[in-house]
């Protein structure tokens, strides 16, 4: 249910209908709370806070951010943490809490760099896996070529031996025929 409500909230937000979006985000918060899905709950709390910020209702935004911050953060993804600090930096800036705003900005920048490193690391890993796959493919192709070459050599040798045996048999047959012919001629010559 939380996913459905959250998706509906997102759709209404994109359609420029913040009241409907808030209604469905709140439903998503309730459903994810019942399901024990803290990550979805945090995400939807932040969605609500951002809508309130866009309306200039900073106290309401801070209220929902505080609820989100009170939830267990151990399983929060880097993107969720980045989003939290990014929103909090804007809230602190609004309330002219400069030290907290700077601290939140530093935290969001640090997490952003971790996200970028992870993405680069993931890209590098995918690239290495692709190289390994291509090398394995190349080795397989080379092995198949080698097997085909050996097969062709065996076939050529078999054909050569078969042809040689056939020629030998033909020579023996012709010699036998020639001996018969000579024998007949000798018998004819002896009769005469």
Order of helices and strands: HHHHHH
Rg over C-alpha atoms, rounded to the nearest angstrom? 42 Å
Low-pLDDT windows of residues: none
End-to-end span in angstroms? 119 Å
Mean pLDDT: 87
Helical segment tally?
6
Secondary structural class:
mainly alpha
Mind summarizing the main beta sheet? none
User: Strand share of the residues?
Assistant: under 5%
Share of residues in helices: over 70%
> Which shape, going by the Cα principal axes?
rod-shaped
Number of beta-strand segments: 0
Describe the protein in words:
This protein has six helices and no strands. The protein is mainly alpha-helical and 192 residues long. Helix 1 packs parallel to helix 3, helix 4 runs antiparallel to helix 5 and helix 5 packs antiparallel against helix 6. The mean pLDDT is 87.
Short description:
The chain has helices spanning 2-14, 18-35, 38-54, 58-70, 78-94, 98-191.
Which features characterize this protein?
mainly alpha; 6 helices; 192 residues; 90% helix
How would the blueprint of this fold be written?
Layout: H1 2-14, H2 18-35, H3 38-54, H4 58-70, H5 78-94, H6 98-191
Helix pairs in contact: 1-2, 1-3, 2-3, 3-4, 3-5, 4-5, 5-6
């Amino acid at each position: 249910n939380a996913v459905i409500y959250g998706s509906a909230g997102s759709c209404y937000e994109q359609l420029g209908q913040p009241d409907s979006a808030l209604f469905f985000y709140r439903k998503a918060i309730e459903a994810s709370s019942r399901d024990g899905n803290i990550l979805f709950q945090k995400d939807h709390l932040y969605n609500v806070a951002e809508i309130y910020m866009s309306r200039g209702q900073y106290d309401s935004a801070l209220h929902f951010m505080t609820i989100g911050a009170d939830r267990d953060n151990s399983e929060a993804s880097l993107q969720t943490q980045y989003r939290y600090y990014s929103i909090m930096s804007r809230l602190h800036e609004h309330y002219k809490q400069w030290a907290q705003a700077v601290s939140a900005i530093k935290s969001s920048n640090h997490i952003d760099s971790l996200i970028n490193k992870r993405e680069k690391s993931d890209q590098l890993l995918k690239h290495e896996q692709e190289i390994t796959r291509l090398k394995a493919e190349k080795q397989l192709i080379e092995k198949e070529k080698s097997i085909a070459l050996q097969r062709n050599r065996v076939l050529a040798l078999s054909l050569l031996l078969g042809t040689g045996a056939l020629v030998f048999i033909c020579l023996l047959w012709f010699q036998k025929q020639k001996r018969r012919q000579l024998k007949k001629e000798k018998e004819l010559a002896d009769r005469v």
